Amino acid sequence: MKRTQIDKPRSNCGVFGVFRHPQAATLTYYGLNALQHRGQEGTGIVTLDYDREKERHFLNVHKGFGLVTEVFRDESILKGALTGDVAIGHNRYSTAGSANNRFNIQPLNVNYRNGHLALSHNGNFTNFRTLREKLQDSGTIFQTTSDSELILHLIARSDMDDQLDQVEEALNRVEGAYSLVLMTDSALIAARDPYGIRPLALGKFEDSYVVASETCAFDIIGAKYIRDIEPGEILIIDDEFLRRGEPHSRWIQKSVDKPRYCIFEYIYFSRPDSVIFGENVDKVRRKLGKLLAHEHPLNTDDDETAIVISVPDASNTATLGYATESQKMRQNMRFEIGLIRSHYAGRTFIQPYQDSREAKVRTKFNTVKGVIKGRKVIVVDDSIVRGTTAKLLIKLIREAEPKEIHMRITSPPIHHPCHYGMDFPSREELIANRLGGDLEAIRKELGVDTIGYLSHEKMLESVPREHGEDYCTACFSGEYPVPIDVETTKEEYEV
């Protein structure tokens, strides 16, 4: 199945874990529902249970292609098949390894000399190819084409006797961006790369502990957010942790000058109701919109009221920030709902003569013509990648007969691909790079009257930096904090 070309950075993945709760699978199901925006290709849950007669642990697994509600449609899966009081789950959007390989759906699990291991991973290992080829040369047989499988093999092949030592050694060998949850026969292990590029949070539900990519997954089950897993931290959640209530952590032995949080988590990926990297996403997005209003106001010479509309859903709160700040600046404009998004579009079945991307846009969005017709319209969006969908969206808005269309983007132009868990196209396909950063050329190609991107400086001004934290802005600047192996395509190791 060929993937439709994208005009948005795709979310990387969502991970969730529960330790010592009798309804672990059900809690994980709800957590994955809240994290559905981070991946829609496949989902899975693995639980740990104990057979008292045979005196051994065993894993229960259920995975499949599709959304959480589709894969777990039969409630007997959660109530009967996925028994146990420890569970981990995963929503997949593939950034390494084919989207169409069923074996790539996570959590991945194995049984080796020290017991069971199951893994949910968000991010990309940048030394994936080098490590995989070394392991293959030494006789390792891979079951998937996902970079996540590396961790399981590195742990299983370690010369260390202690399982936690094996995990620590494995994580010291991989490089890149990762937030991951490991499940063993006795513990739930949560870890982040030393730069903390991807988010991962710790929460508490009743007497149990939970971990998740975003805090919105805690809200849905009523769990309390405690703190983030620290960059480079390997947090062990086991029975001793439950008894003492104090964290038992190890640390990845890699020296970094400071964190490099992914700034796109604030701009686009994370839900606005989440707290990531210690800050509310909604607050940051509103500030992005406010600063964009200062950098790119719509200067009008008449008394006509312009309308500001968002491209739902990711740009909703940034659009509110743009509109309210514009009003404070005495700009004659107001926020309106001019685009309606269908959340139930699903797959589209296209006639041969139709353009599939145009049909996808029309299925996903529709205009409120009475709001747009005859008006000056400011369209606020979070980013433009290829420009294909943005161009079609502007065409759709033009059909509603506005007087003018002005586009405002709450991030700088994207010139470089991401190698840390976002699915950007190649550099040559990025509209800002393809047109040499020429804003006038981009404006003409999209078909808008004016266009304005938020500057790099104002973007950094929008995010919290109280403790000297820095951010990964490689997709804008080309400055990659972690070295990149030779680039590997998703399908490179497919048979």
Feature tags:
Rossmann fold; Glutamine Phosphoribosylpyrophosphate, subunit 1, domain 1; 24 strands; alpha+beta; 495 residues; seven-stranded antiparallel β-sheet; 18 helices; 2 domains; elongated; six-stranded antiparallel β-sheet
Descriptive report:
- This protein has 495 residues and is an alpha+beta fold.
- It has two domains: 13-276, Glutamine Phosphoribosylpyrophosphate, subunit 1, domain 1 (4-Layer Sandwich), CATH 3.60.20; 280-463, Rossmann fold (3-Layer(aba) Sandwich).
- The protein is 29% helix and 26% strand.
- It is built from 18 helices and 24 strands.
- It has a seven-stranded antiparallel beta sheet with strand order 3-2-4-1-10-9-11. Strands 5-6-7-8-12-13 form a six-stranded antiparallel beta sheet.
- α10 crosses α11.
- The two termini are 15 Å apart.
Task: Give the integer mean of the pLDDT values.
Answer: 90
User: Which value, in Å, is the CA radius of gyration?
Assistant: 23 Å
Tally of distinct domains: 2
Biggest pleated-sheet summary = 7 strands, antiparallel
Estimated share of beta-strand residues: 25-35%
Classified by CATH, the class of the largest domain is Alpha Beta
Structural category: alpha+beta
Low-confidence stretches: 1-6, 347-354
The counted number of beta strands is 24
The fourth-level CATH homologous superfamily of the largest domain is Aminohydrolase, N-terminal nucleophile (Ntn) domain
Shape field:
elongated
Portion of residues within helices = 25-40%
The CATH architecture term of the largest domain is 4-Layer Sandwich
Can you tell me the CATH topology of the largest domain? Glutamine Phosphoribosylpyrophosphate, subunit 1, domain 1
- Read across the widest sheet, the strand sequence of neighbours is 3-2-4-1-10-9-11
Number of helices: 18
